[in-house]
Amino acid sequence: MSVQALIKSAVLAGALLVAASLAPGPSNSAETKIAIFAGGCFWCVESDFDQIDGVVETVSGYIGGTLENPGYREVSAGGTGHYEAVRITYDPEKVTYDALLTAFWHSVDPTDAGGQFCDRGDSYRTAIFATDEAQLAAAEATKVEVARELKTAIATAVMKAPTFYPAEGYHQDFYEKNPVKYKYYRYSCGRNARVKDVWGDKAYLGIKDHMG
Asked: What is the pLDDT of residues 134-152, one digit of tens each?
């Protein structure tokens, strides 16, 4: 290659670098955030949040306990301190964290300290696991509002999120893989009936029109 060709190549490479540095970066709409909620059976929480526009992914798992890499048997047997929870990846350009909080509160019985619906025990308690200080403040503020609205003490815990452990594969998207079993479980467990008792026409049952 001639000297002139080398110079031209160097100049072109430099121009491309300058152009790249001046080009706009990726838009905020491409960025996602994480929310983590424990609302009783994680199959139901997944189902409810997957129907919200702006939710990109839901993953069932375990959080808040002392055992590393827990499995369903250990968690459901009790003693690990873990909650069944769902990690929600969402697009903040399409749905806000406040909107997710609204859906969460109105899809559970936040007054129940012993579990949710037919599922009893520590792993089925409700909780909000904040991933940053802004989420923590928002969750605590809405807890006060919910207590005022329901005129009773709220059992749902609000705390900073520790390590989240994804659950076994057969738990992921259970409602899609086993629709008949899932629908029977949800009905027989009394989830929808109790949520309606607590929230009336504000109940969120996985149907957007019911979010209120």
From this structure: 999 999 999 999 999 999 9
Is residue 209 over pLDDT 90?
Answer: no
pTM of the model as a whole: 0.84
The structure tokens 């029109």 sit at 209
If we measure between CA atoms, which residue out of 67, 68, 72, 101 comes closest to residue 84? Answer: 72
**For residues 157 and 37, is the Cβ–Cβ distance under 8 A?**
no
Q: How far apart (Å, rounded) are the C-alpha atoms in residues 179 and 68?
A: 31
Please state, in angstroms and rounded to a whole number, the distance separating the CA atoms of residues 117 and 9.
70
What is the distance between the alpha carbons of residues 164 and 137, in angstroms, rounded to a whole number? 20
Active site residues: 41
Backbone region of residue 66 per phi and psi (left: phi > 0; alpha: psi in -120 to 50; beta: other values): alpha
- Give residue 50's Cα distance to chain centre: 9
Domain boundaries, the chain: 31-210
What pLDDT score was predicted for residue 30?
A: 65
Domain 31-210 in this protein, CATH class = alpha beta
